[in-house]
Every structure is written in C-alpha cells, then in structure tokens.
Write a structure and sequence with these properties.
35% strand, 2 helices, 16% helix, flat, two-stranded antiparallel ribbon, single chain, Thiol Ester Dehydrase, Chain A
Length: 155
C-alpha cells in the first residue's frame, strides 16, 4: 500500500494499521508515521490559511506493523497569528509518534528575499539511482525514487 492509501485512511478517520511493506527493522518507517500524524492534525484542525513554521517530531516507541493505530490531537494555543498543536500516533493506548507543530498566518512584509536557485551538479537523469534491493534495503525504499548526487572534492 502506498502513501496515498494511508493518507486517505487518516483523512477519513478510519481505523488502520501499517503493513510490513513500510517496515524498517521492527518498526514502521518513521517518516511515514510523522507524515500521517501531521496529516491528521491538518485534517482535523482545518489549517488552510496557515503555514507550517516549526515541527518537533518524537519517535517514542516502535510502531508495530500490522497492528491497529489511532491518531489524536490537542490544540495548545490558537492566536491571531500562531496556532500550536500536538498530535500523536497511538498503539494500545501508548504514544509511539508525537508531533508538536506551530502554524503561522501569512502576512505582508516590507522585506524581500530573493534567494539564488541552487543548481544540482548533474541533471536528475544523470544522478546515480539508489535501488531497492530486497534483503539489503528496508522494504519502504521501494516507494521512493532515490537519486544520489556525489561530488568529489580533491585538494
């Protein structure tokens, strides 16, 4: 099951478990669990007019594969400009992944920042592919197109 499947489950507040295809050792891939908690927060609080400004992610325990998960959230503060919230992924009543996030309202500023674009050393097609290799890489790697840019520097 791909990320979109899990995202839809969280958005619909359906009971769910993460299958072994997302395993990393004895736990689910932390990037997936964090993304799902953040999806739950955004879905349940309707944060359409505020941007994510900071996020702290805590991996409190192993998210066991193929076991039921539930998501909760609690608003910590809701001001004119800033909204702070915590969200959790729980299994058997225990916190497994916790997020504390701060969302801020957009506002006008007289300061203009125009950063220069960063150019990769090679095109995407020229980059080395990091392959999924069963038994050598975690199962969840199959869901990503990983590319490596290696730059050698000799003095």
């Amino acid at each position: 099951m791909d990320y979109k499947y899990y995202q839809d489950q969280v958005q619909q507040c359906l009971p769910m478990s993460i299958d072994s295809g997302w395993g990393q050792g004895r736990s689910a891939f932390g990037g997936l669990t964090a993304a799902l908690v953040l999806t739950h927060i955004e879905q349940q609080t309707g944060l359409t007019d505020r941007d994510l400004r900071t996020i702290n992610i805590h991996f409190c325990g192993a998210v066991m594969l193929d076991e039921s998960c539930e998501f909760t959230h609690r608003v910590l503060s809701n001001g004119k400009s800033v909204f702070q919230v915590e969200g959790q992924l729980l299994q058997n009543g225990e916190v497994k992944t916790q997020i504390v996030a701060c969302f801020g309202a957009q506002r006008q500023s007289s300061i203009q920042i125009n950063p220069s674009p960063i150019k990769p050393p090679k095109s995407l097609a020229e980059a080395m592919v990091f392959p999924f290799t069963p038994g050598r890489t975690p199962e969840f790697v199959r869901y990503f197109d990983l590319r490596l840019f290696i730059k050698y520097i000799f003095n």
